[in-house]
Design a protein that fits this description.
Length: about 325
Amino acid sequence: MRHFKTELKKIGVYTSGGDAPGMNAAIRAVVRTAITHNIEVTGILQGYCGLIEKEFMPLDLRSMANIIQRGGTMLKTGRAPEFHKAEVRAKAVANARAEGLDAMVCIGGDGSFTGAHLLWKEHQFPVIGVPGTIDNDIAGTDSTIGFDTAVNIALEAIDRIRDTAASHDRLFIVEVMGRDSGFIATDVGIAGGAEEIFIPENPVTPDQAIERIKAGMSRGKKSSILIAAEGHKPGRAYDLAEQIRKKAGFDAKVCILGHVQRGGSPTAADRILASRLGSAAVEALRQGQCDAMVGVYQGNVVTVPFDNVIGHKKHVKDELVQLLRTLSV
Ligand code: F6P
């Protein structure tokens, strides 16, 4: 974590990368905490794209009304591959300074934090990160904003699938999001009583899954649900179903939940997490902290240097995967 010295008069806030339910609650917390401390807030639209294109909007207390319950992000978001170029980052910082910003709050994931880290490293422009992604794949925080909502949305879908799977004695493979991590798949698998999960962190072959299904059948099971994390290949559940059909002759139905998991009203847990972290981000900046992320560790808000966050992999606990297998007999 780095420290900067300046009296904060105005800060910027942006959401970046994939949207996540609870981002609006985080924006609200940033704005209301800042204004309470007489700090003005500028909203930057569409993440780094808005910073490059000077898409700014003033945010006041009342503009934050009625957003805590809304999914998506009122500031919009985006992925900006051009931010990989040093000259684009220099332009972005020039725009931020011309707007009078003393610092910024970045609500996003690992990629967004990498951009923020470079703004400090190259231009000493202070940014503090707030972890917002449904994937929960950010080191240094127990949970990320949007994860709990995504898990609950996927779980509701799985409960519905279970009804039809049981009625037809069918095997289903449900694919959930998570990019290259299996946090959503693991939580949904345990909470949904799935027979097996396919996650990047703890790879299972179709043969192993077939064995578990057959073992279940020998104990009288008539239907099964397997959860597949999308991994690097969204749609991989179709490949798995095909392999299972070829190897065992089981006709596996596939359901890909996709972006449904990213929308909708955030859960109470996500709204509370977002409110705590959004507010903590402003407090961290007021204390001159930057080049770091605010997160939650063992129930407490912590500030973690970007150096300990970016590129550090958070792992699904093996113990949870074992629990799922123990309980799905
Ligand atoms: O990072 C959030 C996430 O929803 C991942 O789970 C998923 O792999 C990716 O974003 C999808 O990105 P996009 O919406 O750009 O297709």
